[in-house]
Design goal:
By secondary structure, the protein is α/β, with parallel strands linked by helices. Helices cover about 60% and strands about 10% of the residues. A hairpin with an 8-residue loop joins strand 3 and strand 4. The longest helix has about 55 residues. The radius of gyration is 35 Å and the shape is elongated.
């Protein structure tokens, strides 16, 4: 890889990493960016407060309080059994060295010690078994909340974030949280109880030896803090790099045809190698600092153990300290540092989980779509007709109670809109569409055609002006009801895993099989469906990878056809089909649009000739309007586009 390209990649991905690791959380701006923008771009950086993330993780475990109490009881029982079993060595050893000891007494002590350890083993099994259920239940709730939040996020969130990075939240980050909850939480509780109990027994056994152990503790904690601080930093960087790499893999695999068309295989490999190497470097640093925690703490523990054994031996010789007490104490000395060592060895799991939790909760904290107004107007369907539902507290549209039937008349009045506040995309857009009319938008790429249709669905809210349906401002309509009554056929097709029948029925889940077939016929999809191996029961996977692009679009159109929505939006709906199929679709579309108010975006101007009105847009403004013949007579921009004197660039 040449130096210039390496410098460009470092600059490109460093900005993404800086946004994720350094900037404070912020809301997404209204503007869409690249749909598959390389590295994961979360609009809000991960929270700085790891303690807050830990508290939120625990909030998902609180639902199983009773189980947690029992787990805590088992942890205490296991720890007490372990400490008591260890202390049994003192009378056993002293009994062997003193006069009057007997085999029977020794056997009884051993049986008692075995019984104590058996209780501890049983408690350990129960705590592990129950805690797994608790942790998996918490993970289920986290995934549910995360997926539920995904459904509530505005469209602009997906326009400005890589799908791969979003998926990384569900896989890598949630799995890291699960790894911590399965084992580490119990270990933390057990460590606290074990350290407390061990310290108490150490004091009871010998105060002076206890002081030696305590002197070593600050050194151990300081070392743990030094290593842990750096480990956490690198684990955050590792999680961010992992999300970036996943995002790049997702976008490259999705756009593999484009990669091959432009012969960018080597370029893609170079960029992947760069990201993979960056992830490797961050993982090495994270794993190194996480891995050395155990050896560092282990060495301090060995030093403490050695000092205790040496000084304890001197006490036995000079001060009459019993041999059993020394044996028990050196065992406790090692046992005292063991929980700290175990926790230090779990630091990589803890920091990885906290880094993942911060990313998950950052996504959960994203601003959702604004809620509907309390007096929002609803839309109900009955016997194929649509009616306004006016709440009692609604005063603005009370007249609709006397005229409740919805007439899909759409009006845009002096609409201004910009994805970013400093850049206006649409300017003083004014138009109307009467019920059953077909309105077409034509113009150059970037003129604002698709933006208008996105505003009709409230994917974005306008900055100024008003959009109304049947005289009711769409911002006063319940968002779900609004979208349920606006069917869309997009240029980008998307099919779900399931049968052909299920994909068509996605447009209206209560549709009958007969209605599914009728919708397919309307979209001219019935003939090719019947040629499939299992007809309408053919399974589609991988976004319909076993179908052609045109066939996928026909199913997309059939999905809209089965919807009873009175408003229809066609955004380059026939762009992926051949001319012969297009003629069949247009006939079906004429039947489909007969009783619907329709908005059409098309680059093929032949498809909009029969529109009631054609809007010509340039730079976010309507510069010409009229039907086909009127616009040709004006010999303006539409005339140039239609006759080929100018092109749609």
């Amino acid at each position: 890889m040449d130096a210039k390209r390496l410098e460009r990649l470092e600059k490109k991905y460093k900005k993404s990493a800086d946004r994720q690791l350094e900037t404070p959380p912020k809301k997404h701006g209204p503007g869409p960016g690249p749909r598959h923008g390389g590295p994961g771009r979360m609009g809000g950086a991960k929270p700085k407060d790891a303690g807050k993330a830990l508290k939120r993780i625990f909030s998902y475990i609180e639902a199983d309080r009773i189980k947690l109490v029992f787990v805590l009881f088992c942890v205490i029982l296991n720890t007490v059994a372990s400490l008591a079993g260890s202390y049994m060595l003192r009378p056993i050893i002293n009994g062997l060295t003193e006069e009057g000891g007997s085999v029977q007494k020794l056997f009884g002590s051993i049986v008692l010690m075995a019984g104590i350890y058996l209780v501890g083993v049983t408690a350990s099994y129960l705590q592990a078994r129950i805690m797994i259920g608790v942790s998996q239940g918490a993970l289920q709730r986290i995934r549910n909340d995360l997926f539920g939040k995904v459904q509530k996020l505005p469209v602009r969130f997906y326009d400005t974030n890589s799908y791969g990075d979003i998926m990384s939240r569900f896989s890598n980050d949630v799995d890291a949280i699960g790894e911590m909850m399965n084992n580490t939480i119990v270990q933390v509780i057990s460590a606290v109880i074990s350290v407390t109990g061990t310290f108490a027994l150490m004091l009871y056994t010998n105060v002076w030896l206890t002081l030696i152990t305590i002197v070593m503790l600050p050194l151990m904690m300081k070392a743990a803090g030094f290593v842990g601080k750096r480990s956490q930093k690198y684990y955050k960087a590792q999680q961010a790099a992992l999300g970036t790499l996943n995002g790049y893999i997702e976008e490259t695999v999705t756009g593999q045809k484009v990669v091959k068309v432009f012969c960018h295989e080597e370029t893609a490999e170079e960029e992947f190698h760069y990201l993979n190497r960056d992830l490797r470097d961050k993982q090495i640093k994270a794993q190194f600092f996480g891995g050395i925690m155990g050896p560092v703490m282990g060495n301090f523990s060995q030093i403490s153990y050695s000092l205790t054994a040496c000084i304890g031996g001197l006490l036995c010789v000079l001060r009459g300290f019993d041999l059993g007490g020394l044996t028990v104490f050196v065992n406790y000395s090692r046992q005292f540092s063991r929980p700290i060592n175990e926790l230090s060895m779990q630091m990589n799991t803890i920091f990885s989980a906290l880094a993942g939790a911060e990313r998950v909760f950052a996504m959960m904290d994203e601003a959702p779509e604004c809620e509907d107004k309390e007096d929002a107007v609803g839309i109900a369907e009955k016997d194929g007709r649509f009616y306004w539902e006016i709440p009692e507290e609604q005063e603005k549209y009370t007249y609709r109670k006397e005229q409740p039937e919805l007439k899909p008349e759409v009006v845009l009045q002096n609409v201004y809109f910009g994805y970013n506040p400093d850049k206006t995309i649409l300017k003083h857009i004014t138009l109307y569409a009467k019920p059953g009319q077909k309105i077409a938008f034509v113009g150059s790429t970037g003129a604002g055609k698709t933006t208008i249709t996105n505003l009709l669905n409230r994917f974005y809210d306008i900055g100024q002006g008003c959009i109304s349906i049947d005289g009711i401002d769409i911002q006063d309509i319940r968002r779900d009801d609004l979208r349920r009554n606006v069917a869309m056929v997009l240029q980008d097709t998307h099919l779900f895993t399931g049968t052909v029948r299920e994909n068509i029925r996605y447009g209206r889940l209560d549709a009958t099989d007969e209605e599914v077939v009728e919708a397919a016929k309307t979209a001219s999809a019935h003939s090719f469906i019947m040629r499939l191996e299992h007809g309408y029961d053919t399974m589609l996977e991988g976004d319909g990878a076993n179908l052609s692009q045109g066939q996928r679009q026909l199913l997309n159109i059939a999905r809209a056809a089965i919807s009873k929505a009175p408003i229809l939006i066609l955004d380059e709906a026939t762009s992926s089909v051949d001319t012969r199929t297009e003629r069949h679709i247009e006939k079906g579309m004429d039947r489909l649009m007969a009783d619907r108010t329709t908005f059409v975006i098309a680059h093929r101007l032949s498809t909009v000739r029969n529109a009631n009105a054609i809007m010509v847009l340039e730079n976010g403004e309507i510069i010409e309007r009229g039907d086909h013949e009127e616009l040709l007579a004006q010999k303006g921009r539409y005339y140039e586009l239609y006759t080929g004197l100018s092109e749609l660039d």
